[in-house]
Design a protein that fits this description.
The complex is a heterodimer of chains A (473) and B (152). In chain A, helix 4 crosses helix 5, helix 4 runs antiparallel to helix 6 and helix 11 packs antiparallel against helix 12. Chain A has a four-stranded mixed β-sheet. Chain A has a four-stranded mixed β-sheet with strand order 7-6-5-10, covered by helices on one side. In chain A, strands 11-12-13 form a three-stranded antiparallel β-sheet. In chain A, 42% of the residues lie in helices and 17% in strands. Chain A is α+β, with helices and mostly antiparallel strands. Chain B has 152 residues and is of the alpha/beta class. Chain B is built from five helices and five strands; from the N terminus they run E-H-H-E-H-E-E-H-E-H. Chain B has a five-stranded mixed β-sheet. The chains are: A alpha+beta (473), B alpha/beta (152). Chains A and B meet through helix 5 and helix 6 of A and helix 4 of B.
């Protein structure tokens, strides 16, 4: 008997992301939904593979943040081995993770978002990119390119490759850092920090011009989640989970990431391939929480490096408790770049950073392993179950962009309510929705290979369910 | 210094032709630096601006398999914002816009027969490698010749 498999929607390739805006009887915006119509299936096709292959396979999930998947996966496999990896290996993993944070944040701020700020939300979409900036604001474009390049050099120097390095392995890392490598990273540190601080100063000066965006781009109370160390300082690679409320109060602290299922539920909506994680004690959909740079700065007690701590203190003046506007993801991203550069400097100065002891060796000793780290966009979990021989029987990946799904829905609804008036979609609305989503820096923008604009389709639906207007690019 | 970009993905068989041509080139051409890249990015513009000449080595999807072609490149403005895959001309244009200088540049291609997943080149491309490498040496030598700096 033959079976027929129907994949729908196939033809909506233009809409890797789709948004529907629901109107009420009076024609006012009632709700909005952000749909992801792309399906990749990594969790399913990794079943049956050896756990030792997972760091290399899952690094291919993303071309921008392969290091995050590499590290979360390596940590999950460490857990299957039940080993404590050598201290030097831990520090090298941290350096690589922070190098990626710098390059990814630089890509998001300079290459993808700064054209909105410098050329305006109403500029032609094809002009809103870093290449157009080369003509209008060459110094900004150069800074962005230089900073991203330095972050990539950190990864390449330590891990051997900029993209998809097969370096973090079950039990540690494949090779130690050389003296030349350390010196090469050192050589670029001062310039990188200079660029980061110069950009941050500029951003604080122009922030006043973006008050409307700060008020309307995802400005609402929610929980925030991120990793901190035992003292509450930022720890992007080996921290424990902390949740804080909109008032900045710690709701739950020092959760072992291995226990994530106890605190995080994953709802599935019929209209999106992106899951909707939520904080279990608050239920669904009330347990909306945000992850990523804004969340991390909201959850930490201090950053843990001198300049970043000064900036964090100033940043916190924006909120009474937590900083609530998703527009301030941009600001938080810049502070995290400063932190990342300073923290890399601290780690490079550790006396054992050049040690050869970077690998623990063991067989599989457990049948379940969870690994987590802070990806540029938020907390990332890899959860594997394996048979005694090491073949995986279950894989669950909780991705940062997914954890912001509910918040992105609310952001779209808020922007729509502010900018949509009547039954007609206008261009300015499209640009601002795009910019609102971009503040979260979702992986969609890289997976669709588009910069300057995301393939978007927005449908305006009346109370009876009829589409009254469509805008797309 | 002559900068040679070895472009392409060796896991897509003949797409690795650029890398294959570049292999051993540094020993044949004085003051030549090979940079392997799956794709051209804005970050490459700075290195391009510092070179005396740039040789882009790549596979071509068109043409009889194994055909070696070469031609000069002129800087151009970027198309729409496709950051993942800049053209050589766009990297040159970006180098000029950002760093004030686009050196002379040449594109050398080897036409491929097989771009499916896998290692190894097709027999046609493999056979053309000595000729392609010889041509690359000639082009690098020509790029190395002293010439007046263009006024931008």
């Amino acid at each position: 008997m033959s079976e027929r498999i129907v994949i729908d929607p196939v033809t909506r390739i233009e809409g890797h992301a789709k948004i529907t805006i629901q109107l009420d009887d009076a024609g006012a915006v009632k709700d909005a939904r952000f749909h992801v119509v792309e399906f990749r299936g990594f969790e399913k096709f990794c079943e049956g593979r050896s756990f030792r292959e997972m760091p290399v396979i899952t690094a291919r999930i993303c071309g921008i943040c392969p290091v995050s998947h590499l590290l979360a996966s390596a940590k999950a496999t460490d857990a299957l081995l039940a080993v404590e990896i050598p201290d030097t290996a831990k520090k090298l993993r941290k350096i690589v993770n922070l190098g990626q944070l710098v390059q990814s944040h630089a890509l998001s701020f300079f290459h993808l978002s700064s054209p909105d700020f410098l050329l305006g939300y109403d500029a032609e979409p094809h002009r809103r990119n870093v290449l157009a900036l080369a003509e209008t604001h060459p110094e900004v474009a150069k800074d962005g390119i230089r900073l991203r390049k330095w972050g990539q050099e950190v990864i390449e120097t330590v891990a051997g490759k900029r993209i998809h390095p097969a370096w973090a392995t079950p039990g540690g890392v494949a090779r130690p850092l050389t003296e030349d490598g350390r010196d090469k990273i050192w050589a670029g540190l001062a310039e990188a920090l200079d660029i980061a601080q110069r950009t941050l100063s500029w951003w604080k000066r122009v922030l006043e011009d973006h008050q409307e965006e700060a008020r309307t781009f995802g400005n609402f109370p929610s929980l925030f989640m991120g990793m901190v160390d035992e003292h509450g300082l930022l720890d992007h690679t080996d921290g424990k989970l902390r949740f804080v409320s909109e008032t900045g109060e710690i709701v739950k602290d020092q959760i072992d990431p291995a226990d994530y299922e106890e605190w995080i539920g994953e709802a599935v909506e019929p209209d999106s391939y992106l899951k909707s994680p939520y904080f279990k004690p608050a239920g669904y959909p009330g347990g909306v929480y945000r992850v990523g740079p804004l969340a991390r700065l909201n959850v930490c007690t201090r950053a843990g490096t001198p300049h970043a701590d000064e900036e964090l203190a100033e940043f916190r003046q924006l909120g009474r408790g937590a900083v609530l506007s998703s527009f301030h993801y941009h600001y938080a991203r810049l502070i995290e770049i400063v932190y990342g550069i300073e923290r890399i400097a601290q780690l490079l100065g550790e006396p054992d950073i050049l040690s050869d002891d970077v690998q623990a060796v063991a067989m599989r000793n457990r049948t379940r392993g969870v690994g987590a780290c802070e990806a540029p966009r938020g907390t990332l979990f890899h959860d594997y179950e394996a048979k005694p021989g090491g073949i995986l029987t279950r894989v669950n990946l909780v991705i940062a962009t997914g954890q912001n799904n509910l918040a992105m829905n609310r952001t779209v609804a808020q922007i729509a309510k502010h900018f949509v008036n009547g039954r007609k979609l206008v261009e300015g609305m499209l640009n601002r929705v795009e910019a609102g989503i971009r503040a979260f820096d979702p992986c969609l923008s890289c997976s669709t290979h588009a910069a300057g604009q995301m393939p978007l389709r927005i449908e305006l639906i009346d109370a009876a369910g009829a589409i009254v207007d469509v805008a797309e690019r | 210094m002559i900068l040679a970009f070895a472009l392409g993905n060796p896991l897509r068989r003949d797409d690795g032709a650029g890398g294959a041509v570049a292999r051993g080139l540094e020993a044949l051409v004085p003051d030549l630096e090979v940079l392997e890249a799956a794709e051209l990015l804005p970050e490459h513009a700075e290195a391009v601006s510092r070179a005396d000449g740039v040789l882009f080595l790549d596979a071509a999807a068109a043409g009889p398999p194994g055909e070696v072609r070469a031609g000069p490149l002129a800087p151009s403005a970027a198309r729409t914002a496709v950051l993942h895959a800049l053209l050589p001309e766009e990297v040159l244009g970006l180098a000029r816009a950002l760093y004030g200088r686009a050196p002379p540049a040449v594109l050398l291609t080897v036409a491929g027969a097989d771009f499916t997943f896998g290692h190894g080149l097709s027999a046609e491309v493999e056979a053309s490698l000595p000729r392609a490498r010889e041509r690359a040496c000639e082009l690098a030598a020509a790029l190395s010749e002293p010439r007046p700096r263009p006024v931008l």
